[in-house]
Design goal:
With about 350 residues, the chain is an alpha/beta fold. It folds into 2 domains: about 160 residues, Rossmann fold, CATH 3.40.50.720; about 180 residues, Rossmann fold. It contains 12 helices and 18 strands. The strands form 4 sheets. Strands 3-2-1-4-5-6-18 form a 7-stranded mixed beta sheet. The chain has a 7-stranded mixed beta sheet with strand order 11-10-9-12-13-15-14, sandwiched between helices. The model has no long low-confidence stretch (mean pLDDT about 95).
């Protein structure tokens, strides 16, 4: 079987790194890639060719591959160029748009969406969402630092003492925890909100203060995701967030509810009264944002507060992000491909969850 890698049209990342070649060969796969697919991630074509990849045009990869991988879904016209029965692996986020499944059923191909991998211990090595969220949380703090007009750690100098930056993290999932760890390493005073009681211990273990709002619904069967909260709870949460935000210099917002619009946690009133020079990084921008003024993929300034709306910050770490994404893909392929043949065995819970359309 032939595995094909496509160049991303809107990302700097690439879905498979050159270092994956030995494992692909070990599965009995022959690999090919679109010319220049890895350039923006720092992986030139020569690195792939040296590792046994054939360099081909996009049309050749589409029409001759048995397994095709991309990070972002390709167009309908390009899916029509695939072999009948081919396996296409990408990220379709069907939980955000339930029309995706019906749409894909029109194509005679098998489709795996990596964002549907269950968040279980067994599937942890294939969890693309966690891999990218971890990088985004790290980058969010660095991005905030670039726009912040002060420094993170307390410093005592002959000219006076510089107080530490106060950082507030909204949502202590994978991205939030990495943001906490990064901000603490830089010397900031950090506090974090999360609706899940299980997050408290993790937050405190990283040296941050856990700010708890009483009355949260905590669904332990939600696979590690936050769940929708009552209007009464959200009102209490917003009031406490406003109180803390007014004392903060930097806010990293990561709170999302799977399949729903992101909860509004930072209101216009809050931003209008925050300290001038403060920075908000909203990682929930693609699903509506946690901040009232957030514009997806845009940086704006309101009342002296810089608001960065970006849910794809991992793409700014394109080399390591590509390597982690590649490792997730390889780990998934190892349960699908045996001796050069793909077997989409739906008795396997991971495959069953990720396979969203069949030929």
């Amino acid at each position: 079987m032939v595995l094909g890698i496509l160049k991303e049209q809107n990302f700097n990342r690439v879905s498979i790194a050159p270092s994956a070649s030995k494992k692909l060969t070990g599965m009995g796969l022959k690999s090919q890639m679109e010319t220049g697919a890895g350039n923006n991630a720092g992986f030139g074509d020569h690195l792939y060719s040296e590792n046994g990849f054939d360099i081909q045009s996009r049309d050749v990869v589409l029409s001759s591959s048995d397994i095709i991988i991309s990070i972002a879904p390709i167009s309908d016209s390009e899916m029509n160029k695939m072999k009948k029965g081919a396996l296409y692996i990408s990220m379709f986020a069907p939980y955000q748009n339930n029309e995706v499944l019906a749409h894909l059923s029109a194509f005679p191909i098998n489709v795996v969406s990596m964002d549907m991998i269950p968040r279980t211990t067994l599937a942890q090595s294939m969890d693309v969402l966690s891999s990218m969220a971890s990088l985004a949380g790290y980058k969010a703090v660095l991005k905030a630092g670039d726009h912040y007009n002060n420094m993170f750690p307390m410093m005592m100098t002959a000219a006076g003492t510089i107080p530490p930056t106060k950082v507030m993290i909204l949502g202590a999932g994978v991205a939030g925890l990495q943001a906490i760890a990064t901000a603490k390493r830089l010397g900031a005073v950090v506090e974090a909100f999360d609706t899940r009681a299980a997050a408290k211990e993790e937050v405190m273990s990283l040296g941050a203060t856990f700010v708890e709002v009483e009355g949260a619904v905590d669904d332990r069967g939600a696979g590690g995701y936050a769940v929708q909260q009552s209007d009464e709870y959200l009102a209490k949460q917003r009031a406490l967030v406003q109180e803390r935000a007014l004392k903060s210099n930097i806010v990293i917002a990561t709170a999302q509810v799977r399949g729903r619009k992101a909860p509004l946690l930072i209101t216009q009133e809050t931003i209008d009264n925050m300290k001038p020079g403060s920075v908000i990084v909203d990682l929930a921008a693609s699903t509506g944002g946690n901040c009232a003024y957030t514009e997806n993929n845009n940086t704006i300034v309101k009342k002296g507060v810089t608001i960065i709306g970006n849910s794809d910050l991992s793409d700014e770490l394109s080399s390591v992000a590509s390597t982690l994404f590649s490792n997730n893909i390889i780990n998934f392929l190892q349960i699908v491909v045996k001796d050069g043949v793909a077997n989409l065995n739906e008795e396997n819970e991971i495959i069953k969850s990720a396979l969203i359309s069949k030929a």
